[in-house]
Amino acid sequence: MSGPSSYQPSNGFMKWMDARLPLPRLMYDSFVSYPVPRNLNNFYTFGGILMVVLVSQIITGVWIAMHYTSDAQYAFESVQLLRRDVAFGWTMQSWHAVGASFFFVAVYIHIFRGLYYGSYKEPREVLWILGVIIYLLMMATAFMGYVLPWGQMSYWGAQVITSFFSAIPLVGESVREYLLGGYNVGNATLTRFFSLHYLLPFMIFGIVILHVWALHVTGQTNPTGVEVKQKTDVVPFTPYATIKDALALVVFFIVFVYFVFFLPDYLGHADNYIQADPLKTPAHIVPEWYFLPFYAVLRAVDFNITIPFTEIILMDSKLGGVLAMFGAIAVLFFVPWLDTSDVRSTNYRPMYKIFFWLFVANAIFLGYLGSRPAEGIWIPLTKASTFWYFLHFLVIMPALGRFEKPLPRPASITDAVLGKASGAGTAQLEGAAAAPETKA
Amino acid sequence: MSDHQTSDHDAGKRDFLFIATGAAGVVAVGGIVWPLIASLGPNASEQAAGAPTEIDVSAIEEGQQVVVIWRGAPYFIRKLTEEEVTAATEASQDVFRDYAPVEGRIASVEGSDAKWTIIAANCTHLGCVPTKVDVGLDGWVCPCHGSIFDVTGRVTKGPAPVNLPLPPYVFASEDTLVIGTDQA
Fold first, then answer.
1. How confident is the model at residue A406 (pLDDT cuts 50, 70, 90)?
2. Among A155-159, A235-239, A269-273, A309-313, which stretch is predicted with the lowest mean pLDDT?
3. What's the whole-model pTM score?
4. How many angstroms separate the CA of residue B112 from the nearest CA in chain A?
5. H or E element: which one contains B68?
6. Do B129 and A319 touch (CB under 8 A)?
7. Which of A33, A397, B16, B90 has a Cα at 20 to 30 A from A291?
């Protein structure tokens, strides 16, 4: 990947293989000898964690699918049977459901890490865009998976989300009918969601391979944002990154399995233990926590957009809300070009640092607002918070890059980690593992 | 000279073959994609189940409503009280976001004083089922995103862009309502 391959086949068979299908060489170059910056901190371990979570979701998913019936009449019961009658069914079901939540925990940390350290900036735009595509696919997969148990929240979530498509002018209703396979959410909807829920993770897997490929072409960013310049800036992936990732993975999974075994329903909704009922809307439909900020954006637009001083409606509130919500995700695609600063790491951007943490706080607050009922003080707060979300990307990001005076950056990663006395890199490798994040 | 002519001739033949193959390819792709998409729509039994449905409304008292299912979606059939009819009729036009005259929203049958409102029970915002809380302007309230409709389903507040739609319906007799068609 970077530089010529240093792979040496260890025996005759490997030599024979290397001349025919050099897969071991690819693995060796990608995950053993591959050079990573020596100053990566713990926030850089979430890429590896996400890969493991994806594989664990696929394995548990394939297994629980063996016990699942994708028929509106039996789906709800088959999930209950899985949890009660199948040996370890409760473990696998809970692992899969909690796993979806923790997938998003990890991906949000991963995305915020990318935003903080400028991982989307030249030359990593394609890497970032592939990441946003994975995130979109994850959302589609998670949504369809949540419909499968066919509880009240499953049904009404499907009702709400599929009616986004009926907001499309002229053809909206037909598009929705073809999505649902009927005039309303029903059996046909459930079976096709099951089919697609099974397909999409493999598509995610494919894009993840492209994501890692693009990463290995440009190399990782690092907390200083200074590109790798010399040999002493990097350490080999194995053992340094492998061990660091493995430790982070263990810590992550300790929290994860605590939820699986002791709080399996904490992140879900009690309403989903009631079978889907088309006649009865739950008092308070809320999506899963990881969709809440976007749900708040959707609800923020409750007004028609008219031509000023006339009654002519340009866009009704429904289409407006749906466009705002998709816009909140789509804006991520343009982040590499919206950020005009050529300083990668926020550590060296004193003003942007403030706005970055404001953005994080606002995104969390937006999620909280999404969980509140649409009434009273929550409505203006939702509008303000949505406004700030877009302001951050569309005004603050482009403007700050022009006005802000960045702090002086180190000449190289080696300088940042080992001080000015460079050169004795290999002798001080312990220092590299200590994650010298320049937070102080 | 004759060689040159032959190659010109061949070039013409190749162009033709290229275009013909391309055209056949486009037709083949279309022929594959068409059934794939067509299969996603409502199937024949779904369409058959979507035929008009008859409802006996004789047992409904004033101020009561029933919810019926047609095409998998719920519809409200409410027999209006005099109070409700007055409130809907006297409401100012300004409070409605998608104003529609009240006459079109209230149904009645020849030979009977009963006034009915027959409306789709899925909020026009995102499809939740509104709950009835009050007579008059705050008739139906959607629990999901707070849209409010008057008793005849006309939107007054919240994110819903338009009124609750009216299904096609017709009274076959004083006691029999047919939803799904407006032809008697």
1. very high
2. A309-313
3. 0.86
4. 30
5. strand B65-70
6. no
7. A397
